[in-house]
Amino acid sequence: MSQQRKGASAKSSNGANLGFEQTLWQAADKLRGHMDAAEYKHVVLGLIFLKYISDAFEAKHAELAAQAAQGADPEDPDEYRAASIFWVPKDADRPRAPGTERRGHR
After folding, report:
1. Nearest CA to 6 among 40, 39, 37, 30?
2. d(Cα 28, Cα 13) in Å, to the nearest integer?
3. C-beta atoms surrounding 52 within 10 Å
4. Among the ranges given (7-11, 19-23, 58-62, 67-71), the one the predictor scored with the smallest mean pLDDT
5. What is the pLDDT of residues 57-105, one digit of tens each?
6. Among 11, 39, 95, 100, which lies 20 to 30 A Cα-Cα from 3?
7. Domain ranges in the chain?
8. In whole angstroms, what is the distance from residue 88 CA to residue 46 CA?
C-alpha cells in the first residue's frame, strides 16, 4: 500500500487535482520516523480529536456571535454544553484577530 501511495499522482478519488497529497504523505512519514504504526495511531487520533473539537467550537462560536443581537452569548459555556460541544476557555489558545494577541504570546 505504501508503494501505491508514494507513486500515486496528486489526484483525489473524485478526480480533483489538489497537488498537496504527496507533500502531506511525506510530512506524516517524516513525523512518524521510526515509530511503530501501532504507536503512531495514538498520536494521530489525538490530533484528529483536537481538530474536531476545535472546528466544532469555532463553528458554534461564529453562530453565537452572529446571534448576539438576539441575546446569544458566545462566551457562555452553557451555550456549548447545550449543543454537546466542548467549551474552550478564552485563556486557551483560541485563534485571535490579527493585532489582538496577548503580550508575550506569538
Report:
1. 30
2. 20
3. 11
4. 7-11
5. 999 999 999 999 999 999 999 999 999 999 888 777 666 656 555 555 4
6. 39
7. 1-34, 48-101
8. 17
Q: What whole-number distance in Å separates Cα of residue 90 and Cα of residue 65?
A: 14
- For residue 40, list its beta bridge partners: none
Using DSSP's 3-state secondary structure scheme, residue 80 falls into helix
Q: How far apart are the first and last CA of the chain?
A: 40
Check residue 101 and give its pLDDT.
57
All three cell numbers of 70, joined, read 438576539
C-alpha cell at 99: 493585532
Instruction: Supply the Cα-derived Rg of the chain in whole angstroms.
Output: 19
